[in-house]
Structures are given as structure tokens and as C-alpha cells.
Amino acid sequence: MLFVDAEESLKSMERQPMGDFYSSVMSGVLSRIGKASAYVLDQNATAMCANVFFSRPSSILNALGFVRLPMETVWIEYSNIATREAFAKLGNDNKWAEGSVLIERSGLLLTQKDGAIDMEALAQFRKDDGRIIELLTAKCRFDTTPGIKSDPTERRTPMKTDHGATGQAKKYYDLLARDENELAAKDELRRRFSGSLHADWVALVSMIPGIESQLRTTLSGHISDIFNMFSTQVLPSLILMNCRNAVEQEFVPAPAKLNKARRAKGRPEIGPYHIVKLKLRPKVRRMYEQNGYSGVQISGGLVVGHFKVRRTGVYWWSGHLRRGGPASNAPRTVHMVTR
């Protein structure tokens, strides 16, 4: 898990030539992550979030009024590789180019206050000389307050584009190419997002000559990266966790034997966590089991679906519930693990 590996990375980097620099950047955010409730999205959870991302942008906007962090400070991480696979299955194939920097895992540390979600981002990169975990140079904010923030006079005119997507992704991009209101809603989501140079990086400007111009060059790209992290996985996961019928939590105590072995090796312990998994009413489960569907098919079928916003909250709707049964090749159970 990224939040555990980051602590180990900090410890191992202490012996490296740039160890002091790395510690100056990373120690603060790792201390804050250590006090947060950690959520780890597994492969199927990322697939469910990808389905939410391809919802109508206006639906995402309508859901913001119900989006709440489950705790005061929350860490959410996911696999970028699993995310690319999930988007590819929905028709948006973003292949990794050999020789380019590969982001393997990403995570956001979130706090919510005064109608906004503030976030810091870590990413695990794979390079030719190995892996490195870094704090991105931007600290970002997403405005969740009611009302439209965009200037109506700046609305874009929908235009058909050659996106090359198929399936659900094609439907999404075609919608944006013909529907002015949905395109405006998508732009509104981006307008609500902002970023500035992270304070932990600002503190280094006086220590290292010439680093400020380099940070400013990197900043805009990192703001874009964090927006992609937030919009494709983290915001969808928050919408799902605030759905009244989408997920439920199961407490799992800290692994005593594993932690004993980790302590002996000088590695960070893994604390207690919750499994956040799909919620299916017992009556519905019995109905499908009587028709010969396995638990894997029933719960896995919920990966594909969409949410609806009502006055009383947000609800998850799955195709197999409306059609009368899940597909025979339904994915495995979707769950999110939380510390």
C-alpha cells in the first residue's frame, strides 16, 4: 500500500545523498497521513469509479451537495495501472508508452472545511533506475458549495472531435460534443478546482538556489495531474461512499502476527482497517441465489451501473437489478479497504 511504502521509502532515503532534501519534503505529509483514515481502492473499486466518471457531468454536479468525507481527514489511494485497465474496458484506451515515466500508484490526503475539499498528492513513479514516491508540488482545492461558479458568457460551443473511444467512453464524449449544458457542467467541475505551490515545497526555495523556477515549471502539470486523480477516482469514490445503497463497512483488526514480523524487520506496522464493500439487501440476495446466481456474480455485477441524485440523497442503480439478473461473466466483488 502506498501510505505504508512511503514511510519505508523515507526511512531508506535517509542514507542517500539527497536524503535530507527528501526528508524535508516528505516528512510533513507522511505525519499527516499517519493521522488520517486510509482508504485503498482495489482493482474492482477502480472499475466502479470509472463508471461514475463517465456519468453525465450534470449528475456529478448534483451529487456534490451530498459528498462528505467519512472522517475529518481521509487518505484515498488507488492503482493507476488498474485505473487504465478499467478505462480501457469502458472504451478509453490510454496505453503507456514504453520509455516514458510510469505512475504506478497515486493517493490524495483530503480534508473538508467551509464547503471545500483540500488535497495533497503522493505518486509512486517507476523509472529506469527503480521506483520513487514523491509529494507533488501542488496543493489543490475543490469547491463543493451550491451555485454555478463559471461565467455564462464563457460557455463553449460543443464540437465534434475524433476521440477514437468506443463503448461507454464514446457515449460520454459524443454527449459532450452535442450537448451544450453537459459540456458546461464539465467545465464547471474544472472551474471549481484550483491549485497553488505546496507549502512544504515553498519552504525549500530559500534552501536550494534555482529551485523556484523549476517548481513553477512543474506546478501547472502537477495541478492537472491532481485534477485527473481527483476527478477520475477520488471524487467518484466519495460519491459511492455517500450513496445510501452502494457500500457497507466491515471492521478488520490489526494483523498481530504480521505486525510482529514487520516490527522485527524494522518496517512500519499496519493498523486496523475497514473493508468497504458492496451493499445488497438480504431479500434481493436470496432472490438471485434462488435463481442460481453465485455471490460473485451478484455482487460483481454491481461494478456496472450509475448513480441517481434524489432529494433524500444519492442512490446506486445497477443494470442487473433492472434487467432481472447479473451477467454470467460478472466481475469479482468490489470493495475498498480502509484503515
Describe it.
This protein is α+β, with helices and mostly antiparallel strands and 339 residues long. The chain is 42% helix and 24% strand. It is built from 13 helices and 11 strands. The chain has helices spanning 2-13, 19-34, 43-53, 57-63, 80-89, 167-178, 180-191, 199-202, 211-241, 256-264, 282-290, 295-300, 319-323; strands spanning 37-41, 73-79, 102-113, 116-127, 130-143, 193-197, 247-252, 273-278, 305-310, 313-318, 335-338. The protein has a 9-stranded mixed β-sheet, sandwiched between helices. A hairpin with a 2-residue loop joins β4 (116-127) and β5 (130-143). The termini are close together. The model is unreliable at 296-303 and 320-339 (pLDDT under 50).
Strands, helices and their partners?
Blueprint: H1 2-13, H2 19-34, E1 37-41, H3 43-53, H4 57-63, E2 73-79, H5 80-89, E3 102-113, E4 116-127, E5 130-143, H6 167-178, H7 180-191, E6 193-197, H8 199-202, H9 211-241, E7 247-252, H10 256-264, E8 273-278, H11 282-290, H12 295-300, E9 305-310, E10 313-318, H13 319-323, E11 335-338
Parallel strand pairs: 1-2
Antiparallel strand pairs: 1-11, 2-3, 3-4, 4-5, 5-6, 7-8, 8-11, 9-10
Helix pairs in contact: 1-2, 3-5, 3-9, 4-7, 6-7
